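Retry 2 of 3 after timeout on previous attempt. Resubmitting structure tokens to design endpoint.
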């Protein structure tokens, strides 16, 4: 396991992933490929020439200061943000397509919205039905997640009466619905107490073939991943386009 204090640069990211793959070659079914990803905002670079390959079972953490592009990378993979250049595919499907999105479970800032006047249970059942599960199967999935993540209180409450931590756990439960092969998690442990943190990581450990890409500032989270990729914010000269 990599030292959480030792950043991996963009240039050595591929080496980091190769190390993960070598530890268990039988699970190297390719799930995610990112080639030459760059993204600019108003002509200013945020992500530059980012490459990444994730296989089944890989656990990789992105870390770096605010403005280094962690959330931007995740949003481009999810397909909610278009890259300026580069290619992204999920099991061979281009990022942003219905086929690619169906393979991803995510906890991202812009997708944490729920129907606040409905209960947590109603929200998860709605998502399960959207993902193609009929009534009985949807109920079964929600009940399993309720037990696994200890969600009874959250599922029974209207969400406008839930705490931030309860909402965060519900976002994670939604990401797990249907056992997607790729999980994109942006600061998933934020606002969670110690007990909830352990539930989250235990849930990931019970899904050994899920590829996980997590953006985090927490050293404890970094230590639980097989590889870490350190990102740097663009320099002032790069920000000015020089």
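Retry 2 succeeded. Sequence:
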């Amino acid at each position: 396991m990599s030292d959480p204090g030792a950043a991996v640069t963009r240039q050595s990211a591929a080496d980091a992933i190769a190390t993960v793959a070598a530890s268990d070659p039988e699970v190297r079914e390719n799930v995610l490929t990112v080639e030459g990803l760059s993204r600019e905002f108003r002509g200013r670079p945020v992500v530059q020439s980012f490459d990444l390959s994730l296989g089944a079972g890989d656990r990789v953490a992105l870390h770096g200061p605010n403005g280094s592009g962690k959330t931007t990378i995740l949003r481009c993979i999810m397909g909610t943000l278009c890259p300026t250049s580069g290619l992204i595919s999920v099991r061979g499907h281009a990022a942003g397509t219905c086929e690619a999105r169906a393979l991803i479970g995510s906890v991202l800032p812009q997708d944490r919205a729920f129907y606040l006047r409905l209960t947590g249970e109603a929200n998860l059942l709605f998502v399960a039905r959207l993902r193609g599960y009929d009534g009985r199967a949807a109920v079964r999935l929600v009940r399993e997640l309720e037990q696994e993540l200890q969600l009874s209180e959250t599922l029974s409450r209207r969400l406008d009466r839930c705490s931030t931590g309860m909402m965060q756990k519900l976002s994670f439960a939604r990401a797990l619905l249907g056992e997607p092969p790729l999980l994109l998690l942006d600061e998933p442990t934020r606002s969670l107490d110690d007990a909830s943190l352990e539930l989250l990581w235990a849930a990931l450990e019970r899904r050994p073939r899920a590829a996980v890409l997590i953006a985090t500032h927490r050293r404890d989270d970094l230590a639980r991943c097989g590889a870490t990729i350190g990102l740097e914010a663009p320099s002032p000269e790069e920000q000015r386009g020089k």
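Attempt log closed. The CA atoms of residues 34 and 52 lie 5 Å apart.
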